[in-house]
Specification:
eight-stranded mixed β-sheet, two-stranded antiparallel sheet, alpha+beta, 2 domains, 4 helices
Length: about 190
């Protein structure tokens, strides 16, 4: 459901970030945007994911109908941001560096994350709710500890010992830093902003 769409969005973001960092000028051909989704609105939403200094120089992309990715603006700082997905219940524009893109690609393809690549992801407008224990949960259940993430940053790909200093509760206090997906290769630190 929404988790599958988010996963497809993140895969697209990771793919475009990889292409962007390799210096390619084109993303996949764009499908027609909905009339309400002007490029100016999409750019504003994408830039809201990260601090202004990061968003200002990031590559901005949008997912179009049919899952096609379109570059809204080429960036220069190695970050790639995308606007809110209107199909999800909460705000979820996101922005990630190249190492985080590699981590996301590993997660989505069920492969081990690359060693020695610590990445940073921003979701300063919030995040669509997700399971805190199951990296592949598609909907809430009594076993998968669905949580409201709120505005946050994520540190991904760190050595396992890094996460030992933070709570790993299945039902964390989301107002302070905690580990999401603890004990899996995709554990990462969630750092709430507000």
């Amino acid at each position: 459901m929404q988790s599958k769409f988010i996963a497809a969005t993140i895969i697209g973001l990771a793919a475009v970030a990889t292409v962007s960092s390799a210096g390619a000028d084109k993303a996949a051909p764009a499908a027609a945007a909905k009339p309400a989704d002007s490029d100016a609105a999409l750019i504003k939403s994408a830039m809201s994911a990260a601090p202004a200094a990061v968003g200002k120089h990031a590559t901005l992309i949008a997912m179009e109908a049919g899952g096609q990715m379109r570059t809204l603006r080429k960036g220069t700082n190695g970050f790639t941001c995308m606007p809110d997905n209107p199909a999800t219940p909460g705000p979820d524009p996101m922005c990630m560096d190249a190492a985080a893109s590699d981590w996301v690609h590993a997660w989505m393809t069920h492969k081990p994350p690359p060693a020695g690549k610590v990445g940073l992801m921003y979701m300063l407008a919030g995040g669509t709710d997700a399971s805190n224990t199951d990296p592949y949960a598609e909907k809430p259940s009594t076993e998968n500890h669905w949580i409201n993430t709120g505005p946050h940053v994520m540190i991904v790909g760190a050595d396992a010992s890094f996460y030992d200093a933070y709570p790993k509760s299945a039902d964390p206090d989301t107002k302070s830093p905690y580990v999401m997906w603890a004990g899996t290769p995709y554990q990462h630190l969630m750092v709430p902003i507000r």
